[in-house]
Amino acid sequence: MSLKRIDLLICCGSGCVSAGALKIKERFHEVLAQQGLTNEINIIETGCMGPCDYGPVLVVYPEGTFYKAVTPQDVEEIVGEHFVKGRPVQRLMLREEEKVVAAQKEVPFYQKQVKVALANCGYIDPESLEEYIATGGYEALGKALTELDPQQTIEVVKRSGLRGRGGGGFPTHIKWQLVQEQKADEKFIVCNGDEGDPGAFMDRSLLEGDPHRILEGMMLAAYAIGANKGYFYIRAEYPLAIKRIRNAIQQAKTAGLMGQDIFGTAFNFEAEVRTGAGAFVCGEEMALIHSLEGQRGNPTPKPPYPATNGLWGKPTVVNNVETLANLPTIFIKGADWFSSMGTATSKGTKVFALTGDIRNTGLVEVPMGITLRELIFDVGGGMVGDHQFKAVQLGGPSGGCLTKEHLDVPVDYESLKARGAMMGSGGVIVMNEQKCMVNVAKFFMEFCVDESCGKCSPCRIGLKQMYDILARITAGEGTQDDIAELQRLGEAVSKLSLCGLGQSAPNPVLSTLRYFRDEYEAHIRDKACPTKVCPDLLHFMIDKSRCIGCSLCARKCPVTCISGSREDKYTIHQPDCIKCGNCQDVCPVKAIDRIPGMHADVLAHRAELTKNNEYED
Amino acid sequence: MYLDICKKYAPDKDNLIYILHEIQDTHPQHYISEEAVQVVADYLKVPPNHIFGVLTFYTMYSTKPRGANIIRLCESPPCYIKGSDNILRKLKTILGVNTGETTKDGLFTLELCACLGVCGNAPVMMINNDVYGDLTEEKVEEIIERIARGNQ
Questions:
Q1: Minimal-distance CA residue of chain A relative to B57
Q2: A306-320, A340-354, A444-458, A470-484 — which is least confidently predicted?
């Protein structure tokens, strides 16, 4: 029995680690040793607690005090005041409207959340099998193995209504049923830990924060489909996740929870970790299987589906990390409990990664069917600063963006799809009014051009064409036909591409065309970027009434295109300006503005150049 | 040396990705040379072009020598929205290189990469195995300076 009176939970998710959580942990060890308190305080390194924006985050139990943005310098005060004298340090707590929020459960960020997959994330030590078991871990596996046959196991998942959390939203039980019915000497279960879209990091947090849960989920799936071997395919960019899963496998083996005759039944299971080497397309299941086999991660046409010809030609189920993470709870709390949450077609909860211009960036888990407004404004705390909400990109570069008018749309697979966005794996990128949607679409397109594996031509060539058009538009060389051409190309690429990457890559362009057509038109017709983002479609102007003639801008201009004097004030010679923005940054009286549109001098200069070129030809 | 690494793995084609990872990680210049490809090809009994196919498909492998420290700046949308292009410009200025290039002293190679999964703290970069989040231009300068000093 431990006699420790305080549990100190330090969030060691990647976000908090990048903000210095490990230094804080070391400092706690030092200070506690100095003060002879090592035996009284239990330091636990947990997985991601969710509110990455507040990092590094600590929670002190038994009372559940929540500290945010802690630095190593604060450690002594926390130990001296809170641990010794019992007076929590108020200045490190969250303040909401001048009120101090003391306990973790009172933090607004957690209020509307329902944690199923993330239940233990940020609560237990991910490197301890005992802590996982203490929260009910491996009970579900024991129950399934001893009380249910594989078909009954599938029935439970069917009743729960669980759908794949990786992007497609395919019902999990159908995938399982297909493989279970196959006659083969070997079957495989693969955990897809090649995080779906950029901007989503739930797989990483789950693998790092609660590895045993994923392992248990995998074994439940394996039992249901009749597989004895499982593979975790994890991105090589996630070294900590790889280490934690390897550790979990080792612990499960030592404890007899994996190997031969598990729970005294005839079920045998082995698992292994495999890593990728940096390729977005490997999140696609066929590409992932090829990568597992040590080949290029190219997708191949379906059918044949992995259910019949998967890894090494054997029937294979590929399930996303979050899908597997839901399984243990479904078996313990029951399928009916799970399906009581959510909407008619989308059951349970979903983990979202909130990023972008939102106050509370981080990882949240909410019931399906919550509205975007609740997700962004209640859980996410709204926009940073005084900015306005403009758009939200759901589902990463394969998803689409939605606008203000969609804020009351319930978040489920069908509602989002109907409006041109998609659930994806749950990345939510929030943008404020300063963002140029044409530029954002161009950026997503550039990403997809880079990540296209090049196997099928609609994706390889079509996306590049779309990117070129967007690049032309943002450079002020767009023509009236460009919008129709983008639409045509986008639809063709969606219909003709081989795998999910190509099929969904035009979405950001198509959805911005649908909801922000006026911005495209302004770029093309008026040669102006309304949000003053695209450098070619804006110009800088010095307001002479505010200019004090200090010459700082002229001295900082890298192309010396600013001239003037103290008396005459300063002016920018527009055709030479490269729009670096240095002048605006250094101006002490903020006399320099960004103005949408090309300057008349630049237009004249361009016309001159074109004329000369024609003359030379 | 390359053969010693190969021998740690069974001569099966599916071990190729791990063999390549280990060769690259243990090479002081963090790359996979033509010579290494030949050794691996002989060991796994596959043609060298298959190995090159895999090698050039994945972004984490390099066929060119690289610096002692590899900087990988995330170029994904959330980081971009939070201003990763300013960070990139700053890194280029401090190091005096373009993306994909190595500094003259051989200390740093600057690369871009897809999502590092720390989007809550965007913009983010990874130097070797360490993640640095909530980057600002000042922070970048400090980090690079500290690593450069540590390497001298």
A1: A296
A2: A444-458
Please report, for the domain that includes residue A62, its CATH number.
Answer: 3.40.30.10
Asked whether residue A209 falls in the same domain as residue A262, the answer is: yes
Residue A196 has pLDDT above 90, yes or no: no
Tell me how long chain B is: 152
Residue count (chain A): 617
Q: A104: closest CA among A77, A54, A131, A67?
A: A67
For the residues B111-115, what does the mean pLDDT come to?
Answer: 87
Phi, psi of A355 (to 5 degrees): -140, 175
Contact (CB<8Å) B58/A274: no
Q: Quick check: is A37 in a domain?
A: yes
Query: Residues A537-541: what's their mean pLDDT?
Result: 94
Domain B69-151: CATH class, spelled out: alpha beta
Instruction: Give the end of a domain, one of A307, A339, A371.
Output: A339
Asked if A69 and A141 sit in the same domain, the reply is no
Residue type for position A430: V
- Across A468-504, b (16+ Cβ under 10 Å) vs e yields ebbebbbebebeeebbeebeebbeebbeebbbbbbbb
Residues A453 and A311 in one domain: no
Structure ipTM? 0.90
The domain in which residue A361 lies consists of: 349-432
**Same domain membership, residue A188 and residue A236:** yes
Cα separation, A404 vs A264, whole angstroms = 56
Best to test chain A binding among B16, B17, B112 (most A CBs inside 10 Å): B17
Residue A123 lies in a domain: no
Q: What is the pLDDT of residue A606?
A: 86
Residue-wise pLDDT for A295-318, tens only, equals 999 988 888 999 999 999 999 999
Tell whether A259 and A240 lie within a shared domain: yes
Cβ contact A211:A247 at 8 Å? yes
Number of domain units in chain A: 5
Element (H, E) at A340: none
Helix axes A437-451, A517-524, angle to 10 degrees: 90
| pTM reported for the whole predicted model | 0.91
pLDDT in tens, A234-263: 988 888 899 999 999 999 999 999 999 999
Mutate to test the interface with B, among A240, A355, A442 (most CBs of B within 10 A): A355
Predicted local distance difference test score (pLDDT) of residue B46: 94
**Residues A427 and A449 reside in one and the same domain:** no
Q: Among partner residues B16, B18, B59, which is closest to A278 by beta-carbon distance?
A: B59
pLDDT band at B152 (very low <50, low <70, confident <90, very high): low
Regarding whether A396 and A458 lie in a shared domain, the answer is no
- End of a domain among A54, A77, A111? A111
Average pLDDT, chain A: 92
What pLDDT is recorded for position A2?
56
What residues does each domain of chain B span?
A: 2-57, 69-151
Residue A118 lies in a domain: no
Task: Provide the CA B25 distance to its chain's centre, in angstroms.
Answer: 9
CB spacing of B58 vs A276 below 8 angstroms: yes
Task: Report whether pLDDT(A1) > 70.
Answer: no
Chain A residues within 8 A of B116 when measuring between CB atoms:
14, 237
Residues 360 through 389 of chain A touching chain B, CB cutoff 8 Å: 361-363
Nearest-by-Cβ selection for A15 from B53, B76, B121: B121
